[in-house]
Amino acid sequence: MGQAKGKALFGRAQKVIPGGMYGHQSTALQSPSTPQFFSKAEGTYLWDYDGNRYIDLMSGYGPNLFGYAHAEINAAFASQLAEIDTATGPSARIIELAEAYVDQIAHAEWALFCKNGTDATSIALRTARAYRGKRKVVLAKDTYHGAADWCTPFQTGTIGEERSHFIYHEYNNAESLEQAVREAGDDLAGIMLTPIRHEVIVDNGEPTAEYAKCARRLCDDHDALLMIDEVRAGFRLERECSWCRFGVDPDLSMWGKLLANGHPISAVLGSEKARGAASKVYVTGSFWFSAAPMAAALKTLELIQTTDYLERTIDLGLRLREGLDSISKSAGLPISQTGPAQMPLVMFNQENGQRDIPITYAFCEIAVEHGVYFHPFHNMFINAAMTAADIDQILEVADRALRSMPARDAIEINPAARAALESFVAES
To answer: Where do runs of H (alpha helix) occur along 63-205?
Structure first.
């Protein structure tokens, strides 16, 4: 695939954007041919500025649930935009959307809206501390909750005091969780957890019911708030809160990414128990009350309620998982596939079980050169616009990649990317 225009754009970007790109959408740590800029998105496909088309397994890092440029959702957005969007006060859409989430989510009695996942987790953190005026919050070690100073995994520019009242435990370890709560003593404000483990590089997967129920019991025993960070997994595992499968309801849940199928909105949903604290904290943003994304979110929720999107994404994810497993066995390259099938983390392992970073990179490099956007260390997202034919095409490319894999010591990886990823592996 030619990439002359894309490389020219990146050259321009380096002059006016630090590093040429920043944040999770920077391709600095990905394979060399990964495009940085895209000109078009439709359904499950992306096009770069050189006209190359890709089947996108990232779905915009999660927001694309029903397909890019979804006609009904975009029509709802455009219709509202023509009437009122960002103004001195919100439209009635804010009430309608809050009512819709309260109807949909069992624990929810109220809703606050914002823009990003980090907004939502930060609001929840502040609400938990306001609930009883306590400071300590228990988090799982290395769990991702956003990019604010208190939670960013890259701490350059932050100060230690911003994390001085956090206590960390091992995810999915009830004994470790209980020990962390004992350490908090009478100063426990809450426990914040993701509904599944979905960090980069490390094996992804569900917690046990014992762990989920332990978190609920500990918060009840200490009059603290249980917060579930649904930003990445919300509505991808259940049409409810993800821990409904364990019979566990949180006091606060934080949502984002797919709420409006790519239009910018996130939310905090809360129980009656947390209403008073939420009403006392001051949180706001100039664009948090915009009506058009709320209209898109209402239409997205309608599709969540009335379509088989969930069952379809699971089926497609299983088709991909089974196909990759068969191909990897045939090629003799051990593959690691973890997390829910609709949110897969796909990497390769060495014979000793350690992550095989060079082989993973080479696989992603060959795949992207043949029109399939794999990520070498981040979980991916199956979207409802995908078809069985798309999955079969992905598997054809995967088979080609594994059959043409170069020797490990001949694979070139950006030295900075290699160092960063090896550091992640070592720490994990």
So the answer is: 71-83, 93-104, 117-132, 174-184
| pLDDT tens-place values along the chain, 428 residues long | 789 999 999 999 999 999 999 999 999 999 889 999 999 999 999 999 999 999 999 999 999 999 999 999 999 999 999 999 999 999 999 999 999 999 999 999 999 999 999 999 999 999 999 999 999 999 999 999 999 999 999 889 999 899 999 999 999 999 999 999 999 999 999 999 999 999 999 999 999 999 999 999 999 999 999 999 999 999 999 999 999 999 999 999 999 999 999 999 999 999 999 999 999 999 999 999 999 999 999 999 999 999 999 999 999 999 999 999 999 999 999 999 999 999 999 999 988 888 888 899 999 999 999 999 999 999 999 999 999 999 999 999 999 999 998 887 778 777 767 776 666 666 55
Local structure of 162: helix, strand or coil = helix
Residue 48 covered by a domain: no
Domain that holds residue 348: 308-355+366-373+387-410
> What is the SS3 assignment for 270?
strand
Does residue 406 fall inside a structural domain?
Answer: yes
Report, in angstroms and rounded to the nearest whole number, the Rg of the chain calculated over CA atoms: 22
**CATH number of domain containing 90:** 3.40.640.10
The candidate with the shortest Cα–Cα distance to 345, out of 324, 326, 327, 315, is 324
Spatial distance between the Cα atoms of 243 and 265, rounded to a whole number of angstroms? 22
Read off the pTM. 0.95
* Pick from 347, 352, 314, 315: nearest CA to 328: 347
Asked if residue 64 lies in contact with residue 57, where contact means CB atoms within 8 angstroms, the answer is no
92 within some domain: yes
Which DSSP state fits 411?
-
Q: Are residues 327 and 209 in the same domain?
A: no
